[in-house]
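Support case: uracil complex. Customer-provided input:
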Amino acid sequence: MIVVPLIERKRDGGVLTPEEWSALVAEYTAGRIPDYQIAALLMAVFMRGLERQELAALTDAMLASGDRLSFDGGGFKVPRIDKHSTGGVGDKVSLVLGPLVAACGIAVPMMSGRGLGHTGGTLDKLEAIPGFRTSLSLAEAKAQVQRLGCVLIGQTAEIAPADRKLYALRDVTATVESIPLISASIMSKKLAEGLNGLVLDVKNGSGAFLPEVDRGLELAKTMIALGEDRGCPTVALITAMDRPLGRACGNVLETEEAILALRGEGPPDLLEVTYALGVEMLIQGGIEKNTKKARKKLETSIESGLAAEKFEQIIEAQGGNPVEVYAAPRTGVVQRVEPRTIGRAIIALGGGRRTVEDTIDPTVGFVITAKPGDKVLEGEPIASVFAKDPDGIRTGFEALAQAIVIGDKLTHKPLPLVSHRVTRAGVEKLGV
Ligand code: URA
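Agent response - structure generated as follows:
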């Protein structure tokens, strides 16, 4: 294929035919066009844009470059809805939303990307969970969706391989911030997931690829048209990216924050955006009819621990080190959370040294949200154990059962956080 005249035509503001787009994508995916020519073409698209029929042809060609997840036949009737974000900083919504919505009865075959430009990628965040496999085959992904209602994977070699190559090339050739290129990239992947509906999170503000709201709206409309024209009902929310979302920015930290959010302990802005997108997904999937009911269902799924449990199941199924939520064994008041028991358990899990030569596993331990004086209900999540294996989870649970004492009332007052000030002159009692 002779590519130079096509680059020239696009560079000079002309239009390529659907057949030309189709051939370009197929030949590039097969490795028969060098990166430098496609980089030049991408820049021409960046500068000149694409006509509607060109964008449709490019998206279809990218979609056709690989396989699709198909749920036809086999009697799987659960509505399949996914969400995709145009990319931001601190945006760990997918990690919370996938399990949360799956716990409410929607199937989420979520295929995510790696960091692009300054934005983080869900895949990189998931891989912060030791052992977590994001590269499942399509057959494995499909089986997991049918069994657990959610899979969190990367773009397999089988799905839209053209986008995989183009995405990597755009990342290093300053051609990310283009409405047609973003639209074709996102929609070629999403349309391969065999969805009944799609919710888009289009970021707005200085941290978004397209900071101006008008451009964000145009991007949303472009992707909605691509989805709807191909039989996938699509809706978009424009959400703020003029500040990082949540508190944590960076892969391990964001994964931790997402796990906390699944237990209702997440920062309010993260939960708000997650709920807004989740509401759209539940309504699209026909699980709830209105916003109020859908929101309530999502909140209940978090409060009951079902959403966190769903994430645990997904982590386990995809080979990640187990994380399990520990629930209050009875209703009452937390009387004690014994630090020594927790400290020794961390050592037993591999997070501390027994001998000088021991190496420490920095990924194991506890997140404990119960504090002395808290009222808790039987079954309410009050801690999580992060372990290497199921034995570690058992060890962690035993330690929590000993350390967290729940009774009818507080038996003694917890120590003040800062109790004394000591100087040469003497001891001052503070009692803060
Ligand atoms: N996310 C994608 O998948 N592709 C883009 O081009 C931008 C964000």
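DSSP finds 16 helices and 13 strands in the chain.

Case will auto-close in a few days if no follow-up is received.
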